[in-house]
Design brief:
- By secondary structure, the chain is an all-alpha fold.
- The longest helix has 28 residues.
- The model has no long low-confidence stretch (mean pLDDT about 90).
- The chain has 5 helices and no strands.
- The radius of gyration is 19 Å and the shape is extended.
- Helix content is about 75%, strand content about 0%.
């Protein structure tokens, strides 16, 4: 049984890596400009160029992907939200408690029924 569990845990690594690459690729090639989304409608070309450089959007795709994976693995940093400009990790942690409560209550209700 322990061998099976270890095997499944080890298989989780390439699966998560593939999911990260797939989601990053889809988001990278989706139409729209993240720098324009963050800046809004009223910005100067200099502010736009500075934001693109700050976000690393001036680098090639493979460099952006490598940096993203490195930040996830080494720092558990998923980046910043384009909408709220807050850390995605912080937002995930904030939403974890309500999610766990709803999940627990759902399991409890299904057991009662």
């Amino acid at each position: 049984m322990a061998k099976y569990i270890i095997k499944r845990i080890l298989w989780m690594i390439p699966v998560l890596l593939c999911v990260i690459i797939l989601v990053f690729t889809v988001m990278h090639f989706t139409p729209g400009d993240p720098a324009m989304a963050v800046l809004g409608t009223n910005y100067t070309p200099e502010a736009y160029a500075a934001k693109v450089k700050e976000m690393g959007l001036d680098k090639p795709y493979i460099v952006q992907l490598g940096t993203y994976i490195k930040n996830i693995v080494t720092k558990f940093d998923f980046g910043r939200s384009y909408i709220s400009n807050r850390s995605v990790t912080t937002q995930l942690v904030e939403r974890m408690k309500p999610t766990l409560i709803i999940g627990f209550l759902g399991v409890l209700l299904s057991q009662l029924i």
